[in-house]
Structure formats: C-alpha cells, structure tokens
Amino acid sequence: MEKKLDQAKYRRGMKLTDQFNRKYGTMVDKESGFPASGINPDGWSDPLETPQKYIRIVQDSEKRPIPGKCHVHTDEWLDDQRRATKEWFRLLHVAAQQSYKKLTPEMIADLENDSYLTDIVGPKPFPSPEQIEEYVASVDPNIAPEALTYADFMKEGRAKGHEVQQIALAWKAHKENLQEV
C-alpha cells in the first residue's frame, strides 16, 4: 500500500528573528529544520519588499539551521541592486542614443524621467541602493552611531543628494530604533 504524504507530519510553523530584531514566519521541514515555504514578515510590513533570496536561515558550524534565527544579506542585495541600476542607466542611454538624433546635456540629465525611454527599458530597479542603505541605517543602530548629531546626519544625507524630508524621516527612525535597543 502506498504511503500517503501529510504536510502536518513533516512540516511545522516557526517564528524567526533577523539581525535587526524583526520577526518573520515560515514553515520548516521537521527533519532538516530548513524552510519549506517563503520567509515572510510577521506583524510588520516590509517597505522595500526584500526578495526571498536574501533572507536565509542562520546555520551553525556544522551547517545545521539554528532555530528561530534568520539573516537578511543586505550586502549582497546592495551589490545586486547597484549592478541592476547601473545596467538600467546603460540601457536608458543606449535607448536615448537610438531614439533621439541630438542629445543635449539637459536631456541627458533628465533621461530617467522620459516616459518614452522608460517604456522601452522598463522601470528603474526598486528599491534603489540608496533606499536600501537608508532603511538599513534606520533599523540598525550600528550603522549610524548614537554620537552622530542631527546636523552631521543632515550634512551627510545632503552630500549624498537626498532630500531634507527623507533625511529627517531617516533620522527620526534612527533615533526611535536607538531608544528600543
């Protein structure tokens, strides 16, 4: 007689916590301890929609999963988004050169807002590397030390070309996160 598979016998729900102390939920294989489903935010919404491939279960030295622990590999995600953004801009410039007879410096500066070109090359990769960095800085107190003043934070943000309102929101999130830790 054929054995009937039953997910309830082989899988169970598990709550995970990442390096930023955020909660996730997943289904794990009872035997291996590795996820058998997606790893999804639990009780919070992910504004950057972190791709699943960057959220991984933490493993011990023998490659066994550590129950309840996951890690968001933001460094890999940043590298991938930097490459994707660079390629998007390259394709945007190629499309502009092929579509327009003469490109002025003003046109080049505003290519990403040209709806004709973005229809050709597709949307700009989301989130941008800057958005990832800002978000990580807002949830990880080690990124922006407590000794950093508002003026320094604002100066650094403006030097990177961010809008004052964005910097102020990032500062507020940073300060709230420091108080929770």
Write the layout of secondary structure elements.
Elements: H1 7-10, E1 11-17, E2 23-29, E3 40-41, E4 55-59, E5 65-72, H2 74-99, H3 105-109, H4 115-121, H5 129-139, H6 150-159, H7 164-180
Antiparallel strand pairs: 1-2, 2-3, 4-5
What are the salient characteristics of this protein?
5 strands, 181 residues, 3-stranded antiparallel sheet, flat, single chain, 7 helices, two-stranded antiparallel sheet, 3 domains
Can you put this structure into words, describing what you see?
With 181 residues, the chain is of the alpha+beta class. The protein is 44% helix and 16% strand. It is built from 7 helices and 5 strands. It has a 3-stranded antiparallel β-sheet. α2 packs across α4, α2 runs antiparallel to α5 and α5 (129-139) packs parallel to α7 (164-180). The model has no long low-confidence stretch (mean pLDDT 83).
Q: Number of helical segments? A: 7
Count of beta strands: 5
Major sheet:
3 strands, antiparallel
Strand content: 15-25%
Order of helical and strand elements? HEEEEEHHHHHH
Number of domains: 3
- Assembly classification: single chain
Which residues form runs of ≥5 with pLDDT under 50? none
Indicate the structural class: alpha+beta
Percent helix? 40-55%
The pLDDT mean sits at 83
> What order do the strands of the largest sheet run in, or round the barrel if closed?
1-2-3
Distance between the termini: 56 Å
